[in-house]
């Protein structure tokens, strides 16, 4: 188990949040700025996530955004957190990431998820009538691995299709999950595993135990390797951090009640007339972000590393103001070193 006092690597998950009064173009420019600054601050990875039909999220197409981020940075690893495999033919995913790896060898991560990352209507539109269900995930994942040269094996297996352009290296492939299914599969394949603690905290320890107990050494890993994602908001004072957290709570409520929206301002969120039922719904959420001063958030993250044995941490910050989001990550980076 890692010694948290040695500070495991810290990475960022970004969704290109769109706030009220902001455009998607502004949100994407903020993500580009954040990636550049994250590299300067010493973050290890910068991942963007696939979501669709959500007014508050601009990271619809990770491969396109990843290509731009790779071009604007030079050392930080850039990848998907993740690409939702049921939405895409395996050949398309393999070719996109073979292209990215050829353009930036040794810096590309392909994080793969099993969920659609959207509502059922949008998922059906993405698949255009094709029955790519979550149950097909192991088969589709195997196809992606094979077309990328199957980095989990010491010797490539014979295949009819191989992703092009033919890169001299392979993207680092991760499985993502919020339950035990992908954890077991990642373990059996000998792949690194990233767990979504930020929205499924009650499953974290159990899923990581399943991953480690099912782990089989592969050509890419000789021992289990885990990353845990957590939501954080860091500010100079606890009061300011709590104020910035209000919009995120309102957005999560809107998602869970089928009314997706852009991130409101802290002032609008503070005026929202919460009902008793809505307060009970928020209280029942299984995950709690780490909110507060740099010292408080650092202590909570160290405790998370110690309780899970994570080899890496990935943090995500959901606040309205672009400058406030940058400042939160900067404060955390300084506190973590």
UniProtKB/TrEMBL annotation:
InterPro entries: Bact_Lucif_Oxidored (IPR050766), CmoO-like (IPR019949), Luciferase-like_dom (IPR011251), Luciferase-like_sf (IPR036661)
Single GO molecular function: oxidoreductase activity, acting on paired donors, with incorporation or reduction of molecular oxygen
An annotated GO cellular component: cytosol
Ranges where the Luciferase-like domain occurs: 15-311
Pfam families: Bac_luciferase (PF00296)
Family: To bacterial alkanal monooxygenase alpha and beta chains.
Entry protein name: Luciferase family oxidoreductase group 1
């Amino acid at each position: 188990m890692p010694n948290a006092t040695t500070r495991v690597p810290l990475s960022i998950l970004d969704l290109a949040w769109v706030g009220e009064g902001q455009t998607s173009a502004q949100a994407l420019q903020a993500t580009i700025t954040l990636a550049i600054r994250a590299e300067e601050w010493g973050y290890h990875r910068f991942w963007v996530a696939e979501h669709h039909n959500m007014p508050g999220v601009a990271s619809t197409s990770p491969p396109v955004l990843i290509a731009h981020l790779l071009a604007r940075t030079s050392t930080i690893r850039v990848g998907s957190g993740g690409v939702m495999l049921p939405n895409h033919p395996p050949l398309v995913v393999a070719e996109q990431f073979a292209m990215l790896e050829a353009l930036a060898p040794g810096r590309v991560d392909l994080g793969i998820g099993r969920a659609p990352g959207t509502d059922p209507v949008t998922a059906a539109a993405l698949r255009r009538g094709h029955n790519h269900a979550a149950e097909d995930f192991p088969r589709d994942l195997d196809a992606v691995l094979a077309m990328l040269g199957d980095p989990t094996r010491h010797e490539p297996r014979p295949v009819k299709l191989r992703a092009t352009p033919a890169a001299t290296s392979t993207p680092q492939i991760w499985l993502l999950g919020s339950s035990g299914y992908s954890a077991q599969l990642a373990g059996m394949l000998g792949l690194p595993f990233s767990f979504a603690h930020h929205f499924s905290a009650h499953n974290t320890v159990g899923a990581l135990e399943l991953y480690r107990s099912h782990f089989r050494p592969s050509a890419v890993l000789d021992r289990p390797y885990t990353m845990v994602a957590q939501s954080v908001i860091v500010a100079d004072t606890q009061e300011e951090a709590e104020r910035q957290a209000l919009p995120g709570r309102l957005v999560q409520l809107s998602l869970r009640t089928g009314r997706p929206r852009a991130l409101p301002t802290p002032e609008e969120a503070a005026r929202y007339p919460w009902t008793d039922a809505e307060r009970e719904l928020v209280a029942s959420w299984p995950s709690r972000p780490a909110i507060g001063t740099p010292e408080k958030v650092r202590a909570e993250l160290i405790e998370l590393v110690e309780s899970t044995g994570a080899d890496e941490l990935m943090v995500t910050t959901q606040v309205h103001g672009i400058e406030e989001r940058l400042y939160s990550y900067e404060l955390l980076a300084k506190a973590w070193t």
